[in-house]
Amino acid sequence: MDASAHIDDLAGFISAAPSPYHAVAEVARRLGEAGYTALDETADWRESIVPGARLVVVRDGAVIALAIPDTAGPGTPFRIVGAHTDSPTFRLKPQPAATSHNWRQAMVEIYGGPILSTWFDRELEFAGRLVHRDGGVHLVRTGPFARIPHLAIHLDREVNQSFAPDKQRDVQPIFGVSGPDILTHLARIAGFEAGDVLGFDIVTVDAAAPARFGADNALFAAPRLDNLSSVHAGLLALLAAEPTAAIAVLAAFDHEEVGSETRSGAAGPMLADVLDRVTAGLGGNDRGDLARALAGSWCLSADAGHGVHPNRPERHDPTHRPLVGGGPLLKVNVNQRYATDGLGTALWARVCAAADVPFQEFVSNNAIPCGTTIGPITATRLGIPTLDVGIPLLSMHSARELCQVDDPGRLAAAAATFLSGRE
Fold first, then answer.
1. What CATH topology corresponds to 3-87+223-420?
2. pLDDT tens across 47-56, in order?
3. What is the reported pTM?
4. What single-letter DSSP state applies at residue 118?
């Protein structure tokens, strides 16, 4: 897939994935069309886990998919591309609506660390899942529906000097001056009454479509590039991979932006449980077989990183200046905020050479705290050697983030080489 086709496909994937629940549904849909079999976690998997099988498991906003080689046995190692499905945003509170001075407002909590100012004065959509009283789960999305309004400059003459919105008072979106409340509207989209909704998980997202623009259409702006760019790259890599010596795995988790310590997060048991069941299904009869498999495994933790900002280059390390359009990042931090070490660096160099993909090293400025990823979590929980990579962005955690059009496809190509073990 060339860079232009990849960006078009990424745009379609992002548009189909306004919430983590939609994202995993889209991953599962595409894998199903490619012949993957969906597994129910409550079922017996032993008849499904056989050499040559293609399998997918969904839990809430997380998905794990596996391509088992024809020669697999109980000690076969894993090659894992890990990513996360969530992004900084706002989520509806249990009492989701109120009225103030005739304005209908949605009551939201801040999720993760969004750049709050970027969410003002743009059309917003609500999306996620409703839980019906019969236990059924329904995915819903509103389309453009709400807006967080700025105070006019005439009422705040200092707004351009310092804008620091109050996290409770200033970020509650408006969605009308009359008509149904937000939960009633969402229930009608799903085809039932608000009284039938016993639970919900609804996020706020930018309603504008992803867009290419700039000289030669070389720039790509979209919501949720952190980290749907990596989920998409991992999905295409899995579909393109031809594993022979290791089981190829895509593991996309929820809740990374808030610490990953949930049943569907990277710090939870989901990945370990799936790998254990797969090893057992291939004939493993004790924990030693799983330990052997994990000892020979690798995890590629894929999460977007920072390209050098042209207006604030001093915020970056002076000798590590990764550029958008320069290829995916290899992320290094000696304090283990990223899991990359010398062995992982060498593996990534071989993978990128085999895939004919350039790459760049990223190291944080010593004076600025470094972010982290699921990489150290996976390495700690499973003991799998892990390296951290991702495409360079500008405006990470904005309502709309920015990349150069060549980088997402390069990450997918390198990830496919990694999953296939062709380095």
1. Aminopeptidase (3.40.630)
2. 999 999 999 9
3. 0.97
4. G
